C-alpha cells in the first residue's frame, strides 16, 4: 500500500541544532563546539546549578507531591514569581493586576503562544523583527500566521548597532505593527542598545502605537544582574503602555531541557488582563493542553525561597562573569597574536554570543581545518570557550582571516 | 523623580502627536478592549467548579485523572523509584527536536509490539510529543502541510479537544457515527456507512481503546471489518491511544485494534500518551508515530515532524521522558509498572460493577448494563444535561454535562451516594 506521505521531502537540518549534530559526528580530539547556546563550565561540561539540584531534591523528597495536570495557564505561583522577576516586585502593572502571565514551553513556546494570540485577537498581523535575529524567530511567527518584516539592527561595518537604520525602519512601520525586541544580549550579535538608545526606541514605539513583544532569554545572564538586564522591559512597562514578554529559564537557570518559560501580556486594566488570559488558554489547549510541571516547580521552589533566590543570583553571576572573562581572554589573545582587524566588538558585545564578523567561507574553513563548530553566520557561543581552548580558537581565527577572503 | 516627569512629558507629547485619523487609537485605551472572555473549558471547568464547592459531600467524577479508593491522586511506585534515580544525576541539556530516542524506542514497542518488524526495519517516523494533545496537534499540522486538501473524520462524540486541535491546525472536519444513544453502545452500521461513503483516501481519527467519552469500543470482529473497509477505501487511520493498559489491564490487548490494522498492511499514525497509564499527567509525555513505506521515508517524515515542533516549542521536556525510559528500560521497574497499571484498571472495572449493582438494587426502572459493558475511565451514563445539572446543584456531584462519569473518581466510599443521587434524578424517566 502506498503511503499518503510519499510526496514528503526531507527537511534540511536545523541550522543551529545541526551544528551540534555535525560536531558530535566529528572524531577529532581537538574539536570545539561553539554552536548551540548552552552554557559550559571551564572544563567544557554542562552545568546543573547547585540551587537547582537542591530544589530537585526538595521536590523528590516530598511525598505529598503529585503529578496531576496543572492548569492550562500553568502553576500560579510560578506565574506570579516570573512576572515579578522580569517586571520588578514593585511594578505598578503587577500591583494593579494588569499582567496576564501564562507558563509556556521556554522562550520558544512563549513566543509561539503569544504570536497565535496576536493572530487571533490583534488588528495587525505584521511583526517587525531585527536583522539578524535568532534563526527560529521567523518560523515561529510564520507558523502562527503572522507576516514577518525586518528592521535594520546590526551594522557589519562597526559590528555594532545600526541605530539610525533601526529608527528609520521602525519609523516607517505601519501604525500598530508588532515589534520584536531582544530585551538584552541580542542573539546572535550580542549587540544591545544603550539605555539612551532604548529610551529613544521606546518613544518611537509609543508614538507610532507599535506593539512591543520582548524576547527575554538572558535575564541575569548578560550583565550578571537580573535588574540591569530587565531595564529595557521595565522602562516600557513604566510608561503605562501595553506589551508582550516571552521569558525563558533555559539559560539563566540552566533548565534547558525542562522547557520552562512564561508569556506575560501587560494590559491597560485588570479586567482586560483577565479576559486576555482566558483567550490565551484557548490557544494552549489545542496545542498541548497544559504545560509540563517539573521545570516550573523547580523555578517556583527557588524563587519563593529567599535563601535559594540569593544563592541563585550568585551562581548566575558566576556564569555571566566567566563569559565576560572569556571575551576578555579572546580579545587579548587576538591582540597578542596580531590578528588583522579590529576585535574590540568581542568585549563590547554582551551575552552568550559574539558575532565575530567571519564570513561563511571563513567559518567553513575553520570547521574543516580546525574542527571548530559554529553557525555559518559567524556566531560563536562564548559559553563553549574555556581558557584552555582560547588558543586553539585564536589560531583558527587568525588562519581564517589571513588565508580566506 | 526625573524619570517620572520625563515619562509624563513624553506621554503628553505622544497624545498630542497621535492623529485623530480612524484606525489609530488613543494611548488611554487598551489594544485588547474588544477581547471577549473565553468560555470555560467544558472539561477542566468542571474541576474548577468542584474545587470551589464547600460541601463536604461533594464528588468529582469530572476530569479523567485516576484516583485511588480514597479519592486521592496516585503517583505510581515505579514512578517514584524512577524519580529517585533521576534526581541529582542527570544534566538538563536540550533534548533533540524529536525528543528522547530511548523513550521513543520503548514507546514504539508498546504500540507496535516488542518484536515488531516495523521497528526492526526502521519504518516508523516517531517523535516525543507533549502527551496525547501534542501528538494529535503535531499530526494535524503535518496533515495540513503535506495533505493540504484533506479533511479529518472525527467520531461523534469524541474528546472535545479533538475538534479544537484540528480546527487550530486548519484542517476541515467531518464527523462519523459512533455512539448509539438507544443501546448506549456502538452504532456499527452508522459507522461503516460513513466509512464507506467518505471519499477514497480520507483521514479518520480512531480511538484505539477505551473511547473517550463513551467507553464504547468496537469488538475485535468489528475492528477487523473496519480495517477491511478502510483497505477497500484506501483511508488513512490515525489512532489516538490514550489508555493503553488502563482499559483492560493488559497493554497488548488494549493495542489490538492497532495490531489488526498493522497486520492488514495499513500505514497508520498513532498518538500515545503516558498521562493515565503511567500517571504522568502533568509531565506531558507522549509520542507521535507515523508508519512509512520504508526507512528512507521514515527519516524524511521524521525530519518534517521536527520542523513543526521546532517553531512550537523547539524540543520536548526532559523530565517525563526520563521517567518513562527509566521505567521501561529496567525489567524490574517495567514489571512493577505493569502490575500497577492492572491494579488501576481492575479498580475501575470493580467500581463499574458496584455502581451498576447499586443502581439495580435501588430498583431503577432503567437499564444500567452499559456501565459494565463500556470500558476505560469513562462511562457514558445517558444522563441528560438537565439531570446532570440537578446532580450538581442538589447533590454536589460534578461531571461534564454530556453525562460522562469518570469512573476513576468513583470509590467504595462514594459509590452508594452516587448511585442514590443518579437514581433520584432518573427514577421518574
Automatic annotation (TrEMBL), chain A:
<dbReference type="InterPro" id="IPR004839">
    <property type="entry name" value="Aminotransferase_I/II_large"/>
</dbReference>
<dbReference type="GO" id="GO:0006520">
    <property type="term" value="P:amino acid metabolic process"/>
</dbReference>
<dbReference type="Pfam" id="PF00155">
    <property type="entry name" value="Aminotran_1_2"/>
</dbReference>
<dbReference type="InterPro" id="IPR004838">
    <property type="entry name" value="NHTrfase_class1_PyrdxlP-BS"/>
</dbReference>
<dbReference type="InterPro" id="IPR000796">
    <property type="entry name" value="Asp_trans"/>
</dbReference>
<protein>
    <recommendedName>
        <fullName>Aspartate aminotransferase</fullName>
        <ecNumber>2.6.1.1</ecNumber>
    </recommendedName>
</protein>
<keyword id="KW-0663">Pyridoxal phosphate</keyword>
<dbReference type="GO" id="GO:0005739">
    <property type="term" value="C:mitochondrion"/>
</dbReference>
<dbReference type="InterPro" id="IPR015422">
    <property type="entry name" value="PyrdxlP-dep_Trfase_small"/>
</dbReference>
<keyword id="KW-0032">Aminotransferase</keyword>
<dbReference type="InterPro" id="IPR015421">
    <property type="entry name" value="PyrdxlP-dep_Trfase_major"/>
</dbReference>
<keyword id="KW-0808">Transferase</keyword>
<feature type="domain" description="Aminotransferase class I/classII large">
    <location>
        <begin position="31"/>
        <end position="397"/>
    </location>
</feature>
<dbReference type="GO" id="GO:0004069">
    <property type="term" value="F:L-aspartate:2-oxoglutarate aminotransferase activity"/>
</dbReference>
<dbReference type="InterPro" id="IPR015424">
    <property type="entry name" value="PyrdxlP-dep_Trfase"/>
</dbReference>
<comment type="subunit">
    <text>Homodimer.</text>
</comment>
<dbReference type="GO" id="GO:0030170">
    <property type="term" value="F:pyridoxal phosphate binding"/>
</dbReference>
<comment type="similarity">
    <text>Belongs to the class-I pyridoxal-phosphate-dependent aminotransferase family.</text>
</comment>
From TrEMBL, chain B:
<dbReference type="InterPro" id="IPR015424">
    <property type="entry name" value="PyrdxlP-dep_Trfase"/>
</dbReference>
<dbReference type="InterPro" id="IPR004838">
    <property type="entry name" value="NHTrfase_class1_PyrdxlP-BS"/>
</dbReference>
<dbReference type="InterPro" id="IPR015421">
    <property type="entry name" value="PyrdxlP-dep_Trfase_major"/>
</dbReference>
<keyword id="KW-0663">Pyridoxal phosphate</keyword>
<dbReference type="GO" id="GO:0030170">
    <property type="term" value="F:pyridoxal phosphate binding"/>
</dbReference>
<comment type="similarity">
    <text>Belongs to the class-I pyridoxal-phosphate-dependent aminotransferase family.</text>
</comment>
<dbReference type="GO" id="GO:0005739">
    <property type="term" value="C:mitochondrion"/>
</dbReference>
<comment type="subunit">
    <text>Homodimer.</text>
</comment>
<comment type="function">
    <text>Amino acid aminotransferase important for the metabolism of amino acids and Krebs-cycle related organic acids. No activity with D-Asp or D-Ala as amino donors. In plants, it is involved in nitrogen metabolism and in aspects of carbon and energy metabolism.</text>
</comment>
<feature type="domain" description="Aminotransferase class I/classII large">
    <location>
        <begin position="57"/>
        <end position="422"/>
    </location>
</feature>
<dbReference type="GO" id="GO:0006520">
    <property type="term" value="P:amino acid metabolic process"/>
</dbReference>
<protein>
    <recommendedName>
        <fullName>Aspartate aminotransferase</fullName>
        <ecNumber>2.6.1.1</ecNumber>
    </recommendedName>
</protein>
<keyword id="KW-0808">Transferase</keyword>
<dbReference type="InterPro" id="IPR015422">
    <property type="entry name" value="PyrdxlP-dep_Trfase_small"/>
</dbReference>
<keyword id="KW-0032">Aminotransferase</keyword>
<dbReference type="InterPro" id="IPR000796">
    <property type="entry name" value="Asp_trans"/>
</dbReference>
<dbReference type="Pfam" id="PF00155">
    <property type="entry name" value="Aminotran_1_2"/>
</dbReference>
<dbReference type="GO" id="GO:0004069">
    <property type="term" value="F:L-aspartate:2-oxoglutarate aminotransferase activity"/>
</dbReference>
<dbReference type="InterPro" id="IPR004839">
    <property type="entry name" value="Aminotransferase_I/II_large"/>
</dbReference>
